[in-house]
Amino acid sequence: MGRKRTGTIQQRGSSFRIRYTDADGVRHWETHPTRQAAEIELARKVLEVQQGLQVSSKPNTVLFRELAQDVITDYKVNAFASIDDIEARFRLHILPVFQNRRAASITTAQLKQYILMRQAESPAPANGTINRELEAIRHTFRLAIQGRKLLQMPHVPMLRENNVRTGFFTREEVDRLCSSFKKRDVVLSRFVLFGFLTGWRYGEIQALEWRQVDFVKGEIRLDPGSTKNREGRIFPMTAELRTLLNQQQSAGFSEEGAGVATMAARRFVFVVAGKPVGMFRKKWRNACHKAKLPCVVGKDGKPIKALRTFHDLRRSCVKALIAQGIPERVIMQMCGWKTRSVLDRYHIVSEGDLRSAVEKINAAIG
User: Fold this and answer.
1) Are 88 and 222 members of one domain?
2) Where does the pLDDT of residue 225 fall: very low under 50, low under 70, confident under 90, or very high at 90 and above?
3) Helix, strand, coil share of the chain (percent; to 5)
4) CA distance 71 to 88
5) Confidence category of residue 196, pLDDT binned at 50, 70, 90
């Protein structure tokens, strides 16, 4: 017969410390302000241990900053690409408010106060930005429960956000944009056209290597784990993509290093100055303005901000592929969407689509 588990109470100044052992033989300590509170809590914990329930002193003492560090560790272990983003959200916004609070004492009301505090900032962040922070807080609590550091968590409220995608390019606009880059930026022009033809994300194109381009089989591959949904992907090499990649391959071995390709040019598809293409916001903005695409222009007539983004190429690709009659399931596999609902967010109906529909209806009526 197993030994009956009990606990002890020790007075420490004006407080009372209880000690008990859980079912795994791990000792726990808790501090309470009065002997009566200590006796009640000790009796409850001993009874729960005898009933085989999970008990721990950690939920009463662990600080939120400790749990946040567990989230960072989890992101590093799983090699999530958004590690820098989650670290910045904790460091700049979440931890300054919650880091020294006991996680078990954080309530839904306090989380709502956090929302109000963020909304009162100037300029106020978008609801989507605040929601990403709330999602990080919610993930923190859930991971703590999985790790047995918390037994329960508060409800984390979320804001309504308008995440409808509206920007897209027509093929004629893409051609204008590509021709608006300076001659020395021809790699950026090809980079943009590749984004429109494949609908791939900026980071996926930036990291594309020549080993993933198979001219014999006529396909371009993304390795499992390198995409946002962690799944591999294959895109068939159209005639236009083959021409673009042939041009880029020739440029990589002739323009780089006066005829001697750099290591980066031999490895990565899109290389500028011996390195994979980086961010080119200023050149993008200038090219959009030169192509007469929507921009915010200053008093001096120079563009301040382009109203079209590189990510708009992704939804533009969807429109083009659907217009060409490609099945939606095939588009999802080629461009990297797991659910139909996400595809629907990218497939934007334009005024031109509506006019075309009216013309078809009129033609059918005769």
Assistant:
1) no
2) low
3) 50, 10, 35
4) 13
5) very high
* Alpha-carbon gap, residue 295 to 114, rounded angstroms: 35
Please check whether residue 233 lies inside any domain of the structure: yes
Q: Is residue 164 part of a domain?
A: no
**Model pTM score:** 0.58
Residue 172: burial class (beta carbons within 10 Å; 0-12, 13-18, 19+) = exposed
C-alpha 229: how far from chain center: 10
Q: In terms of residue numbers, what domain contains 133? A: 64-146
Name the residue with tokens 């033609």. Answer: 363
pLDDT of residue 1: 37
Tokens 């197993």 locate to 2
Can you tell me the distance from the alpha carbon of 248 to that of 190, in angstroms, rounded to the nearest whole number? 8
* Statement to judge: residues 219 and 122 lie in one domain: no
Residue 258 confidence (pLDDT): 39
How far is Cα 72 from Cα 79, in angstroms, rounded to an integer?
10
Residues present in the chain in total: 366
Residues 179 and 86 in one domain: no
Residue 254 is assigned to a structural domain of this protein:
no
Confidence check: pLDDT of 230 > 50: yes
Predicted pLDDT at 3: 46
If asked whether residues 82 and 138 sit together in one domain, one would say yes
Angle, CA of 203, 340 and 359, to the nearest 5°: 105
> Taking 70 as the threshold, does the pLDDT of residue 62 lie above it?
yes
336 or 113, higher pLDDT:
113
